[in-house]
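Practice problem: GNAT family N-acetyltransferase
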Amino acid sequence: MIDPWSGSRARLASRSPWTPDSDRTRDPSMTLTFSPPPFVTPQRPVRRFGRRIAMVGDRSPQSATDDVGASGLRVRPMVAVDTGRVHDFLIAQYETFNAADNTPVGHAHFQAFVSAPALRDRLDEGCIAHVAERDGTVLGMCELHLDGYLTLLYVRGDHHGRGIGRRLLKQGLETLHTVAPAITVVRVRGTPYARGFYTHMGFEPLADALQEDHGIRFHPFLMRLPTHPQRDTVTGT
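Answer key — structure tokens:
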């Protein structure tokens, strides 16, 4: 068996909508999740996204959609030049917070899914991806498919509980509403420790029993998006 931590960057088909996402804190109500891939053909967005959502060129991460907070934290669209350091960030968070929950098969799938080429392919297909950074350091990342699948949501361990995951999710949902207004639900597969976070964010659990797919264990969740354009889905206001 291939060692899943050998550094291999074997590409996983970038059409597999699964969600790793780890904003893990001691307070279960403030954790994010690691949602594994639903390897079911009807759920896969197969190169139908058309255009990239990142609104700037690859050479400049600046964007009119940047969200810069008072702390200097910036949430902006991810671009192709980010994929290498975003890959390193995601692997580091997974090894620290998620690896123990899954099997070696799950580790290999995760590593392939977040490889730089796979991240770049999904950007080209039009996935909605944002990074949170301060002074050029990646502190969080969120990825949404245009069919409403939340596939990645991670926050660096020493910045858990500071609202970064919430900001990333909010920005992703706002962009989804702009580019795919017909989408009425968002789905995510969350790890057991993340159940409180997703419930708090307005997601509904779809099953009580823990599920497993390709070595990754999860609870499925769904968020019903409001039709009223003024309502903030994440905060419920």
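Discussion: The beta strands are 67-68, 74-77, 128-134, 137-144, 150-155, 185-190, 204-205, 211-213, 216-224. Students who identified this feature from the tokens alone can consider the problem solved.
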